[in-house]
């Protein structure tokens, strides 16, 4: 592979810097947010991070292409000031709704066998406020047992094991559930349940 001639700057094929394009505006940031939300639901914090990354990427390209540093800084400041306005509009029309996002994730993650602790960590990492997390995540033992059984079925352990588990297999199963965030008592209940009862409970569960 031939090395690029020294002195050339990263960018176009002839070595000239790639143009950064126009600075982000409220309109272009709104379009970027819509494109991001078109791929999947997201929290306000996630949209904010995405728009801030877009602004930072433009700033780096502008600096490399030789745009005056003061001009870049001024454009970046204007773009950052537009981000809260974009988020406000998205919330007004219901495209960003942290509470609805949290409730939806609680249902899907719980059905997929995620523990309460794991769900709380997931929501917190996506910028959902503590109060919303507390209200959205169920704290009753029944919901947690349902999630633990869904986890066991997914991992084929406990009542869903292909063959009867010996002491070592049971210990490994217990460790896997504990690492997933389930309390010891819930793990014990889930692993000791017979398959028929576990399957019936998962069919009839209402929480998720």
In brief, what are we looking at here?
Helix content is 66%, strand content 0%. The protein is mostly helical.
How would you explain this protein's 3D organization?
The chain folds into two domains: 26-92, no CATH class; 98-204, no CATH class. It has helices spanning 26-39, 44-64, 69-92, 98-111, 116-125, 130-136, 141-155, 167-179, 184-192, 195-204. It is an all-alpha fold. Helix 1 packs across helix 2 (44-64), helix 1 (26-39) crosses helix 3 (69-92) and helix 7 crosses helix 9 (184-192). It starts with 25 loop residues before the first helix and ends with a helix. The chain is elongated and about 70 Å long. The longest helix has 24 residues, at 69-92.
Q: Which features characterize this protein?
A:
mainly alpha, 10 helices, 208 residues, 66% helix
Topology:
Elements (H helix, E strand, L loop, with lengths): L25 H14 L4 H21 L4 H24 L5 H14 L4 H10 L4 H7 L4 H15 L11 H13 L4 H9 L2 H10 L4
Helix pairs in contact: 1-2, 1-3, 2-3, 7-9, 8-9
């Amino acid at each position: 592979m031939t090395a690029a001639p020294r002195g050339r700057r990263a960018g176009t094929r002839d070595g000239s810097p790639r143009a950064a394009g126009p600075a982000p505006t409220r309109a272009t940031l709104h379009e970027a947010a819509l494109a991001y939300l078109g791929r999947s639901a997201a929290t306000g914090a996630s949209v904010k991070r995405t728009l801030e990354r877009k602004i930072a990427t433009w700033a780096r390209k502008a600096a490399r292409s030789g745009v005056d540093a003061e001009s870049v800084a001024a454009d970046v400041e204007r773009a950052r000031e537009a981000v809260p306005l974009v988020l406000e509009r998205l919330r007004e029309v219901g495209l960003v709704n942290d509470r609805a996002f949290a409730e939806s994730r609680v249902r899907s993650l719980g059905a997929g066998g995620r523990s309460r602790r794991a769900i709380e960590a997931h929501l917190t990492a996506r910028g959902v406020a503590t109060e919303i997390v507390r209200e959205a995540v169920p704290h009753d033992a029944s919901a947690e047992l349902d999630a633990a059984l869904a986890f066991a079925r997914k991992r084929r352990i406990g009542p869903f094991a292909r063959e009867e588990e010996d002491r070592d297999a049971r210990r490994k199963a217990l460790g896997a559930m504990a690492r997933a965030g389930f309390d010891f008592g819930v793990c014990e209940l889930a692993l000791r349940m017979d398959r028929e009862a576990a399957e019936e409970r998962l069919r009839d569960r209402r929480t998720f």
